[in-house]
Amino acid sequence: MTSANQRFKAKIDNKTYTFVGKSSVEHMKTVTELMNEQLNQLKELSPDIDKADAAILLAFNAFSEQVKLQNKINQLEKKDYKE
Questions:
Q1: What one-character DSSP code corresponds to residue 4?
Q2: pLDDT in tens, the chain (83 residues)
Q3: Which H or E run includes 11?
Q4: Neighbouring-strand partners of residue 18
Q5: 45 contact partners, CB below 8 Å, separation of at least 6
Q6: Is the separation of the CB atoms in 22 and 5 below 8 Å?
Q7: Which of 18, 23, 71, 77 gets the highest tally of CB atoms within 10 A of its CB?
Q8: Alpha-carbon Rg of the chain, whole angstroms?
Q9: 39, 54 Cβ separation under 8 angstroms
């Protein structure tokens, strides 16, 4: 049985967003904290970056990490399948 959707308010880069999903509050808090940390790092490295460009870089980095992790999972699954 899947859990019901729940609403979660997150303050990201001083703006409040409401997300709806099945993730736990703990998960959403962790994601929010990580996003804010990475946005702050981007701003420190590039103080003149605008919010749109920072969001694109943040998304690019997230998808890049997702692809790397999926490749690792695929390699491990192939290794387990051969054994």
A1: P
A2: 457 899 999 999 999 999 999 999 999 999 999 999 999 999 999 999 999 999 999 999 999 999 999 999 999 998 877 76
A3: strand 6-12
A4: 9
A5: none
A6: yes
A7: 23
A8: 17
A9: yes
